[in-house]
C-alpha cells in the first residue's frame, strides 16, 4: 500500500550532508512506490512558538508564516521523516522551531504513525546524535498513535557535500525503501 511520506530537511545550508541523507531516503521510498515530498526549511519564515496554547483550541497557530503550510503537510502525511545536522549535540534550531510550531497537530486527527530521524555531524562518536534523537522522540511521544520507528546517523562529515561517496547513503535509501 502506497504511503504519503513527508521529509523535512532542516539544514540551512544548500546541498547539506543531512539533506543528502534525506534525499537518499526519499529515493528509496519513491522506488518502493510511495508518494514522497521533501520540504527544506532553508529560506522559510518560521517564527518561534510563544507558548500561548491557543492552537490547542483552534488547531491553528495565530501566527501565519511558512509553518502553516508545513504543519498542514504533516497533518496529512502517513510517514514523517526529520533530517537534521547536529549542532552542539542537538537537532538544528530550525527543526526544533518547526516542531514547536507543529503544536496545533496535538489535538488533531493527524495521519502519521511512523516517524524517522536522520542526522549528520562533524563528530563521529556513536553518542553524538543521542540528544537530537531523544528530542525528536520526545516530540513523537506526545502523539500516542505515532512512533519513532527508525534513526540513521552519519558522523565524520563537516563540509557541504562531504557525504557524497559515503555508503550511509545506501543505508538511507534502503531504510526509505522498507517503509
Overview of the structural elements:
The chain is of the alpha/beta class. It has a single domain (4-177), classed as Rossmann fold, CATH 3.40.50.360. It has helices spanning 17-31, 55-58, 66-76, 93-101, 130-141, 168-177, and strands at 4-9, 35-40, 79-85, 114-120, 147-154. Strands 2-1-3-4-5 form a five-stranded parallel β-sheet, with helices on both faces. Helix 1 packs parallel to helix 6 (168-177). The protein is globular.
Radius of gyration: 15 Å
SS elements, strand count: 5
Q: What do the pLDDT scores average to?
A: 97
**CATH architecture, please?**
3-Layer(aba) Sandwich
CATH class: Alpha Beta
Under CATH, the homologous superfamily reads: Flavodoxin domain
Low-confidence stretches: none
Features:
Rossmann fold; 179 residues; 19% strand; single chain
Summarize the structure.
With 179 residues, the chain is α/β, with parallel strands linked by helices. It has helices spanning 17-31, 55-58, 66-76, 93-101, 130-141, 168-177; strands at residues 4-9, 35-40, 79-85, 114-120, 147-154.
Amino acid at each position: 500500500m502506497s504511503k504519503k511520506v513527508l521529509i523535512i530537511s532542516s539544514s540551512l545550508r544548500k546541498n547539506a550532508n543531512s539533506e543528502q541523507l534525506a534525499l537518499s531516503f526519499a529515493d528509496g521510498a519513491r522506488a518502493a512506490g510511495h508518494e514522497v515530498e521533501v520540504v527544506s526549511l532553508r529560506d522559510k519564515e518560521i517564527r518561534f512558538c510563544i507558548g500561548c496554547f491557543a492552537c490547542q483550541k483552534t488547531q491553528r497557530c495565530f501566527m501565519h508564516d511558512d509553518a502553516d503550510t508545513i504543519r498542514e503537510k504533516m497533518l496529512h502525511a502517513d510517514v514523517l521523516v526529520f533530517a537534521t545536522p547536529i549542532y552542539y549535540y542537538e537537532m538544528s534550531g530550525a527543526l526544533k522551531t518547526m516542531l514547536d510550531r507543529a503544536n496545533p497537530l496535538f489535538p488533531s486527527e493527524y495521519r502519521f504513525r511512523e516517524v524517522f530521524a536522520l542526522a549528520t555531524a562533524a563528530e563521529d562518536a556513536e553518542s553524538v546524535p543521542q540528544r537530537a534523537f531523544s528530542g525528536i522522540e520526545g516530540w513523537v511521544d506526545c502523539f500516542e498513535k505515532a512512533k519513532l520507528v527508525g534513526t540513521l546517523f552519519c558522523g565524520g562529515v563537516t563540509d557541504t557535500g562531504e557525504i557524497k561517496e559515503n555508503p550511509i547513503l545506501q543505508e538511507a535509501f534502503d531504510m526509505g525503501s522498507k517503509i
